[in-house]
Amino acid sequence: MITRYILCLFLSALSFPAQVKRDAGTLKNPFAADPQAVDAGKLQFADACAGCHGANAEGGRGPNLVENDRIRRKTDGELFNTIHGGIPAGGMPAFSLPDKSIWQIVAFLRSLSTPAFLVAVAGDERAGSQVYEKAQCGSCHKVAGQGGFLGPDLTDIAASRTVNQLRDALVAPGKKPVPGYTGVTATLKTGRQITGVAKNYSNYSVDILDAQGSLHLLAISDVQDLQFRSKSLMPDTYTKTLSSNELKDLLAYLSRRTVRPDARLNAKKGSAEEH
User: Residue 92 pLDDT > 80, yes or no?
Assistant: First the structure.
């Protein structure tokens, strides 16, 4: 009986190898800020993690990994150990994946919550500026003081948005207007119509910024009809009017729009493009 018990323990050890926790302080992601690694990590995540955390890491049986301050505070080494060893007390299993696959997942997770200007993005930024003009983005948006009024200022957009958020804004913008940029048309009791975006709205007044940059402060008592748009003013046709390469270049251009560029990232990006 004792011999059989020892044999069972030995076979169990072979079937379920121990997950050795490594020193998180010494672990560095060799694929940090690598756009190809991010894409590969997304595929690895879909296979290993999406069942609990959702296809886009938005949460399910497992927690949301996008809007998660604990994830942002963890080092790459700590994320590696969590994926590799699991969280037994929390019901997360260990994953016996190759180190490369785990690092790719870590790179993908970082891309979900890291400001865009800190993430290397495939595409040509210079070509993207031409696509920006072709798509007439400047008719609604400003960059460095130049452009329209009906959309958010993009001068520092890469510091407040992730790459995925920028991509979604280009290819699937119609879900919900950005606060402060809801399209509205007010018909006054005089018959005059004012169209623009609602900057403020209450039971007593509505403030509308029009395409020329004029702010109209209207009392509700003077308004006969007020129509708000349920969808974003952002066009939802870019996937049809722009090629996949143009979209990639436009995303690259937007991801570098910040007043605080990171020289280290630019160096990494240049190295990645050389390879």
Answer: yes
